[in-house]
Amino acid sequence: MRIILSPSTQEAADTVAMMVLDKIESHPQSVLGLATGRTMEPVYKSMVDTMTKKPMHLEKCFFFMLDEYLGLPENHASSFKSYIEFHLVKPLNLHHDQFAFPPVHTSNLELAAENYERCLREAGGVDLQLLGIGTNGHIGFNEPGSLGDSRTRRILLTEETRLANKTQFKEGEMPREALSMGIGSILDAKSLIMLASGRSKADAIKYLMNHHDDPKCPATYLKSHPHFTLVLDPDAASKINLNI
Predict the structure, then answer these.
(1) Could you give the CA distance from residue 207 to residue 99 in angstroms, rounded to a whole number?
(2) Looking at the predicted structure, is the pLDDT value of residue 93 above 90?
(3) Average pLDDT for residues 188-212, to the nearest whole number?
C-alpha cells in the first residue's frame, strides 16, 4: 500500500486527478472505474479544469461506474448516472456509449449483475479504479459484513450510509438498496486509488491502517492489492501516525 498525505483537501483531490489524467495520457485506451459522492467532486472538477487548459483525447477511454441506487426512476436527479453526467460527461463532452452503468432498471437483478461482471471481463478489466470510503469503512456500497470474494450484487444499505448520503436527496426518501460492484470485482482492477478527505473519515482510516481483510471494514481488503494507493487530506489522516 502506498500512502500519499496531502497538505490540503484540494491538493489531495488534485493529486488523484493528475494520477487519472497521467494514466489516460500514457494509455489512451484505458478502462477506468469511477466512484461518486462528495469526496470525488473536487477530483472531477480538477480534471475538467486541467483539461480546459491542456486538452486531452478521451474518446478511446471507457468508464465503468461503481454502483447505483435501486428504485429511482431513470435519470433521477440524485442518481449516480445524473451525478457523472453533471460532473464529467457534459463538461468533457464525453459520449454515453463510453460508459457502463450498473443495470438497476431491470426485473432480474441477479442476471443483470452477472451481465455487468461479464462486461467487465470483456473490457479486459479495469485499469484504474477510483474509490472513496464510507464512515463505516464501506467501499462502493459494500457494507460491513461484505466478503472479499463478493461480486456485483444487490445490497441493503445501512442506516449509517443512508444518513451520510441523505443530503443528496432534496426530494423524496433515499433508497434503501443499491447495486454495487463487489469487493472481488474491485480487487480485479489493475490499480486502485482511494481518496479519503474530512474528519468524518478519520476513524475508518485508522481502522484500515490497523486491520487486514476484516469484513467489519470492507476497505481493509484493499491492502492485499499490489497496486493500492491511499491519498489522504490532513483531517482524514488525523488519527494515524505516518512518521514511522
Answers:
(1) 33
(2) yes
(3) 97
DSSP-derived pairing of the beta strands 128-131 and 228-232: unpaired
* Furthest-apart CA atoms within the chain: distance in Å: 52
Please give the pLDDT value at position 234: 96
pLDDT confidence of residue 84: 96
Per-residue burial over 154-164, b if 16 or more Cβ lie within 10 Å, else e, is ebebbeebeeb
How many angstroms separate the CA atoms of 108 and 191, rounded? 31
- In this structure, how many other beta carbons lie within 10 angstroms of the beta carbon of residue 181? 30
CA distance 165 to 202: 17
Q: Which residue numbers are catalytic?
A: 67, 136, 138, 143
Output the nine-digit C-alpha cell for 195. 481518496
pTM over 0.85: yes
- Residue 3 in 3-state DSSP? strand
CA atoms within 13 A on the CB side of 145: 5
- Residue 171, classified by CB atoms within 10 Å of its CB into exposed (0-12), middle (13-18) or buried (19+), is exposed
| pLDDT tens sequence across 122-157 | 999 999 999 999 999 999 999 999 999 999 999 999
Nearest to 41 by CA among 22, 64, 57, 17: 17
CA atoms within 13 A on the CB side of 104: 25
Q: Which residues pair with 139 in a beta bridge?
A: 142
Domain 2-232 -> CATH class: alpha beta
